[in-house]
Amino acid sequence: MYSFRNDYSEGAHPKVLQALVDTNLVQTCGYGLDNYCEQARQVIRSLTQAPQADVHFLVGGTQTNYVVIQSLLQPYEAVIAAQSGHISVHETGAVEATGHKVCTVSSQDGKVTPQMVESVVKGHSSEHMVSPKLLYISDTTEVGTIYTKAELEALRRCCDEHGLYLFLDGARLGSALTAPGNDLTLPDLARLTHAFSIGGTKNGALFGEAVVMTVPNEHFRWHMKQRGAMLAKGRLLGVQFLALFQNDLYFDMARHANEMALRLRDGMAALGLSFSVPSPSNQQFVIMPNQVSQRLIAKGYPLEPDPLDASCGIVRFVTSWATPPEAVEEFLRDLKDCL
Amino acid sequence: MYSFRNDYSEGAHPKVLQALVDTNLVQTCGYGLDNYCEQARQVIRSLTQAPQADVHFLVGGTQTNYVVIQSLLQPYEAVIAAQSGHISVHETGAVEATGHKVCTVSSQDGKVTPQMVESVVKGHSSEHMVSPKLLYISDTTEVGTIYTKAELEALRRCCDEHGLYLFLDGARLGSALTAPGNDLTLPDLARLTHAFSIGGTKNGALFGEAVVMTVPNEHFRWHMKQRGAMLAKGRLLGVQFLALFQNDLYFDMARHANEMALRLRDGMAALGLSFSVPSPSNQQFVIMPNQVSQRLIAKGYPLEPDPLDASCGIVRFVTSWATPPEAVEEFLRDLKDCL
Amino acid sequence: MYSFRNDYSEGAHPKVLQALVDTNLVQTCGYGLDNYCEQARQVIRSLTQAPQADVHFLVGGTQTNYVVIQSLLQPYEAVIAAQSGHISVHETGAVEATGHKVCTVSSQDGKVTPQMVESVVKGHSSEHMVSPKLLYISDTTEVGTIYTKAELEALRRCCDEHGLYLFLDGARLGSALTAPGNDLTLPDLARLTHAFSIGGTKNGALFGEAVVMTVPNEHFRWHMKQRGAMLAKGRLLGVQFLALFQNDLYFDMARHANEMALRLRDGMAALGLSFSVPSPSNQQFVIMPNQVSQRLIAKGYPLEPDPLDASCGIVRFVTSWATPPEAVEEFLRDLKDCL
Amino acid sequence: MYSFRNDYSEGAHPKVLQALVDTNLVQTCGYGLDNYCEQARQVIRSLTQAPQADVHFLVGGTQTNYVVIQSLLQPYEAVIAAQSGHISVHETGAVEATGHKVCTVSSQDGKVTPQMVESVVKGHSSEHMVSPKLLYISDTTEVGTIYTKAELEALRRCCDEHGLYLFLDGARLGSALTAPGNDLTLPDLARLTHAFSIGGTKNGALFGEAVVMTVPNEHFRWHMKQRGAMLAKGRLLGVQFLALFQNDLYFDMARHANEMALRLRDGMAALGLSFSVPSPSNQQFVIMPNQVSQRLIAKGYPLEPDPLDASCGIVRFVTSWATPPEAVEEFLRDLKDCL
After folding, report:
1. Which of D117, D259, D236 shows the shortest CA–CA distance to B240?
2. In terms of Cα–Cα distance, which of D8, D316, D312 is closest to D144?
3. What's CA B126's distance to the chain center, in Å?
4. 3-state class of D327 per DSSP?
């Protein structure tokens, strides 16, 4: 049975892997100072229309989030994030482990609004409290929703007004930028955030996140090294990102993932199921009667329902560049049998 | 005008200060290993009926809270606290600065219930999340409320069930234990918590918090020293706590503070004001029309209203061992004039 | 010109890379809980004759060192290491960044002796000092030397006597275990250390370090996740270590690296050069007149001499599984021309 | 028997204590924002001829050292200090606990020279190493020696050249500034350091260290609060420092302490004993045959010899404002009897 549990269930897109094979025996210097990384940096600066941006390559998402965040904060400064934000719940307190509080706000759809930001800023007014300094958002969010350009512009204005950095976690940025309804572009992100990441792990790379930093952060590589986030064979990241951005592969893969997700969504909706939050991207959160999910599990689907009430749970479905259309069709047939 | 802004607006109770004067030229060894500290430890072990307890003396409240908490936690472990808890908002992220997340729960009256604890425990089930390990509560709470013995017993059962430490911040413990409705005693606290503090700063000492620790914590003095929380002339803490616990001075002072607070409360209620939360202790949170508080400020009272809506604010009144009954009467007269 | 600058100048051994290609489209769960990792753990438990050991896979060396170290220490505990130890100088203070002091000892050959350990232990006797708790050593050391079984046994006895953990950094363990004069085996390491690492990055993997932990450390995966050291596609580590330990590939590659290094060493010695410390392994530190190194650099060799005096520098030569014998011969010819 | 073990064996100078008694019932606001602190700040700005300096009051020495240091450093930055420096050995790793490495240099007399600083700076040249950013020195040093103006000027030039902050720990600054041979003044210290402390604990206060900061450090109070270093009744520090600097009391006390120390030194030298390092200040390190120290201990002197060889140890003698001349005479007589 095909697993929809995640978008990192397979290795890399064959073209990415082939690029690693092709360059395998070339000697380079280490730690991301090689020519592949340098070329990949140039490609990203060009795609984001941010010729002055610093571009760094890290291995994973948690690593990227906390190293970027702690590199921008003083010890008494704090982060603002949605309660559902990845750094709030799913990173084992990585940000706090660097000494910084994460001030959370409640959000129905996983998105943060200027009002939420302001409620935190207003509540932290003296030296007896932490000083909020960075807004963390993710696109797509942890529940699959996406930001519009107007929303991001409003957040940046709010951040500017309160002296906050705006950091966008793009672990699933490919899916966001190719989702129906999206009107953001890479240049928009470079213009509207102080730093954002472009996720490779969940969109066709073996691993790797690129960080685009438009705020000065001269010693970021010191931070990376200190936190074990500087890969010895840094070339592996450069080679992969070069492959990802060749001929739009990155966006083509994300578009495919979204298409598979929307087929799943529409198919499940047609079968009468509903969703906990409307998502246009590669994560779909469906409300499923327990007996249906149990039957699917019995068939071999590795579902992990999150209990909603006595009879129902929320099941996350994730698609990727590797999801075959046939697997979607087969699942929908199996689902129909289980209803 | 007498200031009701805080319970640390004066120095020490004259008997405490006299004890420092009387012992001033006696030579002792440093760092709390002197005889005064040792005697004070024995007195506290006796009063708490906890002959095996470790007793440590620290200088201030924030220091006490974070040193105790971090000494009991592993790096991936977290604290549970009320959103209004002192460590959540008013200690500039001191706990997070030691690397630990504070998981907060909403509470109307500043008190934590077993259900709140369980909601956090249930939400942190895997290695991708922090592992809640310590419940922080305060008595009195930050809004002046107190725990009953039944409530504390229920919390301890809940903590035992989930492998949590129970730490009670007693910065205002004197006020709690002498408040109308209180049925807890020092021995109850030693029996029902793993560690609790007995606040001196806010009840008649120049400074000082005693920590009673019934959970093994062999290297606590290493933690104290590392965090700058071991006073060179540690004797100052021993001498003060000996004076505080001689002839019930500690409880007499707290009882006086409560009495003054309740006179304020009853006087203000009689004048038609209401309170944001009912408090039997030395902190009273009164809802006051802005024009009233402005008039009182104009008279010289250093009030700091916390805006509630367009026309009203919440004003905290705090009394102490040093509050003269005449000051209460005078304030009530002045308030009447300002209504 | 072939670069002898490092043992991570190329990608992976073709067999390792092929294993990644072969398994690329298999779906697995994430975070190292997949079957490849589980098989690799079993292989390593078997090779080390440590059926109860915990085996974890991390991405890089700095990451491995600091996550292992901080997972074993309380906040007031410290590490003992040679001044030349990788964690002392070359990891941007990663251990200190987790709050722990590294107490260093001077060592001519990069190796630590029981006397050195005891000098640190004796100097740290009270709560005003850190408490040394873990001895960090590396094999091969940072200057290419190796430990004998007798030396490691003596260190373990010394550690046991003083309640210290013994952690061996095996970033270049392959080279150590296949060096002339080595009498240590993987089972010896599992028996004599509390934790040790088996380096993949510098011996034929794209990346990856395996940690063999014989001391209980139940929440190590929490530590990994918190520090961004848990790879989403953890399978990549399992697949690589399976390939490394199939048919002795790991040891064959290391043996080749050593052989190339010893040819370099003997060739340079025959040409009259001497070495700053005798090394039987894949790192050779040669004392080279500046004019010779300048001529070689002019020929295209990327040498980085470390100034010794006005006329000479120390140049590190490193070989790997990928070093062709022809490159060694060519270099020796070029060197002869430059003398 | 009078104890020469420390300069914090008694309480406070009677004038300091009287000032606390005199102001005890005055109401002030908390946290060092009161008028006493403000006046004390003005006095110190005036005495140091540094009208723009920030002046902060903290409780103890370890606290002061680590809060100042961490407030000035980025996570990847490190401290340079003598191996014998208080922060290196006697503060339980407080600086490392905030994440910063202390790079130590060997020094016979406890003093740091520009050459020592440069050796550390040169050895830390890349992003793989910490970046030294602050030089920590103490005056008097931990072995009783003092800096001259020329030495301090040379250190500041060296710091400027390498972009380092210069921080001087003045826990025993009174003794330094009144020692024979001293040519430094408070204005010199304000001019030549970026921050220095004026120790109260070891010179007549109950407790308290003043920090004079000439480098901008706008959020220092946030750092203080976060680390539990902001005293609720901050007035206690202001009142004490006002008393210390009234009519030269601070310097008179230190002069007395030095005089007593030099009498001890000269008396012991006359009896044939020698010293491990020549000291003009209130700490004297005498080389004493074990049988002599044992006889003195038997008489009741609380000596703590630090073993030097089989027959001798080094014994520290410390005097203070409270040391009576008669105690010195009595000790010298007793010593003579024990030789």
Report:
1. D236
2. D316
3. 33
4. helix
* CATH, domain B252-338, list 3.30.360.10, 3.10.180.10, 3.90.1150.10, 3.50.50.60: 3.90.1150.10
Among B62, B90, B221, pick the best mutation site for testing chain D contact (most D Cβ within 10 A).
B62
The residues pairing with B177 across neighbouring beta strands, listed in sequence order, are none
pLDDT along chain C (339 residues), means of 10: 96 98 97 98 98 98 98 98 96 98 97 98 95 98 98 98 98 98 98 98 98 97 98 98 98 98 98 97 98 96 94 97 98 96
**D198 phi and psi, to 5 degrees?**
-115, 110
Enter the tokens of residue A73. Answer: 């904060």
Nearest one of D131, D23, D141 to D83, comparing CA atoms: D141
Distance of CA C169 to the CA centre of its chain: 5
- Domain covering B14-248: architecture: 3-Layer(aba) Sandwich (3.40)
CATH class of A249-338: alpha beta
Q: Which residue(s) pair with A134 in the sheet?
A: A79, A165
Q: Would you give the DSSP letter of residue B80?
A: E
Q: Which residues of A touch D99 (CB under 8 A)?
A: 99
In chain C, where the domains are located? 14-247, 249-338
Query: Which fold does the domain C14-247 belong to in CATH?
Result: Aspartate Aminotransferase; domain 2 (3.40.640)
CB–CB contacts below 8 A, C to D: 54
Rounded to 5°, the CA angle D59-D61-D65 comes to 110
pLDDT tens digits, residue range C188-238? 999 999 999 999 999 999 999 999 999 999 999 999 999 999 999 999 999
Q: How far apart are CA C279 and CA C264, in angstroms?
A: 12
Contact D202, D173 (CB under 8 A): no
- Cβ separation of B89 and A129 shorter than 8 Å? yes
Rounded Cα distance between D184 and D196, Å, is 13
Decide if C92 and D129 are in contact by the 8 Å CB cutoff: yes
Give the list of residues 6+ apart from residue C270 with CB closer than 8 angstroms, or none: none
Tokens encoding D110: 């406890």
pLDDT in tens, B168-185: 999 999 999 999 999 999
> What pLDDT digit, counting tens, does each position of C8-18 carry?
999 999 999 99
ipTM: 0.97
* Cα Rg of chain C (Å, integer): 20
Which SS3 state, helix, strand or coil, does residue A167 take?
A: strand
Report residue B272: phi and psi, to 5°.
Answer: 95, 5
Give the number of C-alpha atoms closer than 13 A to the C-alpha of residue C32, restricted to the C-beta side.
25
CB contact under 8 A, D76 and A219: yes
Exposed (0-12), middle (13-18) or buried (19+): which is B113, by Cβ within 10 Å? middle
